[in-house]
Amino acid sequence: MDPYDIEGGAINVRFLHADSTRANFLIQNFDLATANALRRVMLSEVPTMAIDVVEVIDNTSVLADEFICHRLGLIPLNSKNVDDVLYSRDCDCEGYCEQCSVVLTLNARCTGNEVMKVYARDLVVSEGRPNDEVGNPVITDPEGLGSVIVKLRKGQSIHMRCIAKKGIAKEHAKWAPSAAIGFEYDPNNKLRHLDYWYEEDAKKEWPVDEHNANIDGAPQEGEAFDYDAVPTRFFFDVETVGGLEPDQIVTQGIKQLQQKLAGVIHELQGNDGMNGADDFGGAQSPQMNGAGYGGQDAGYTTPYGNASVWGGGGGTTPYGATPYGGPGGSGW
Amino acid sequence: MWTTIGRLVEHEPNSTLRNPNRKSNHMNIAHKADFNNENRFELFLLDDNEKKVEWEEETRIPNTAVFTFNKEDHTLGNLLSSRLHKYDYVTFSAYKVPHPLFAKFELRVTTNGSISPKDAIVKCCKDIVQDLEVLSRSFTTEWLGKRIVHEGEAERLAREREI
Questions:
Q1: pTM for this structure?
Q2: Which of B1, B50, B75 sits opposite A37 (nearest CB)?
Q3: Regarding the domain delimited by A48-168, which CATH topology (the fold level of the hierarchy) does it fall under?
Q4: Domain hosting residue B11, numbered range
Q5: Best B137, B150, B151 residue to mutate vs chain A (most A CBs within 10 Å)
Q6: Tens digits of residue pLDDT in B118-155
Q7: Domain match, B60 and B102 both
Q8: Rounded distance, CA B75 to CA B82, Å?
Q9: How many CB pairs below 8 A link A and B?
Q10: Which ranges of chain A would DSSP assign to H, the alpha helix?
């Protein structure tokens, strides 16, 4: 029996590696389209914090204002519980406020003879923000410096007021939660989705992820090709930029995708008579649309994984009271 | 906003407020951190009065409808169209993005008549949500388990070091 697939036909996850920056896992009995949708959502639609607007008060460094502003935008900021932050565009305030932004101030002047480096740790987070962690610059190096922003020579100074906002990577890559997401299925190419180009021997010339290939099982010599086979095992390697824990990226990604689908269900079912009731008037962030609608038909079953695998007791429908953050939810 | 910056400038006689003529939504603020293309939110925010999904019955073929999803892309398009293939009552489903610069896709669905294309999509969405819920639970349990193993190992190492 396959040691990596002890649960038979149900969707399940196995970890290969997990630490504070990386989650390397495989999903089994899943389908390609959903796995790929999850990958895409994790790349571009998980909300994080990033500096979006910069007021330049003083800049006598050698770098142009725009240049430094761009660098500031790319600094990863802590995005834990970013749900507490509103999107600026959905907020009632004008411009920005404590509910929808975090203000960081950068104020440095070089007085010594040596070149001074200004680091991300020099960004001072102002009082009054949605929660205690969100918006802190991510600092992971042992010296506690963070990324370099500019270098200053004697007499040069820089003073900027940075307004960090919540956003998604679809708008700008600075909001991307992950540095890279490894995604692979069928490492041995048993399904022949790939047609390798080669000089002499494709086996010798193309690298194979040995570890993943062993888990997936090497093809038998002379094994007949199964035309109906579909991929069921997917290898993910999610690496965080630092703003979110890797598991948060995955669970948030799943949540975003569920909300996207919930929006579609809401839209299609809501069309039966309650058209006028929807007075959101368009320009709303995706999360606001149809999030948390109450489904009428709890307890249906799927043709794939059946509900009993995880359902058990009542009140566990994905649309019910405890879809996200129930007792078994992402407790930390 | 003007007054705030005005005050800051007064406090700092040497400071200069750059680009004071630039009027954006944020009045008088010097720079977007990166402002090459300021309208990229058009990729995912619905316009005024725009609906997420619009659909039209195909009159030439029975049980067929074309759904237009606004402000969505391949993420949802491929997900729905390939998932629909798995249902016996769906005889055709495919999506296209009419133009890469406009964030919308069209999903065409034909059923065998036992269910309307709209209900087929709703059912499909619900099933995916449920699958994702299973995935999410499995992921969370496994991650916690892995963390406990990690912490246990760290503790064991620490104890060994003490001895």
A1: 0.79
A2: B75
A3: RNA Polymerase Alpha Subunit; Chain A, domain 2 (2.170.120)
A4: 2-36
A5: B137
A6: 999 999 999 999 999 999 999 999 999 887 887 788 78
A7: yes
A8: 11
A9: 233
A10: 32-44, 65-74, 202-205, 210-216, 246-270
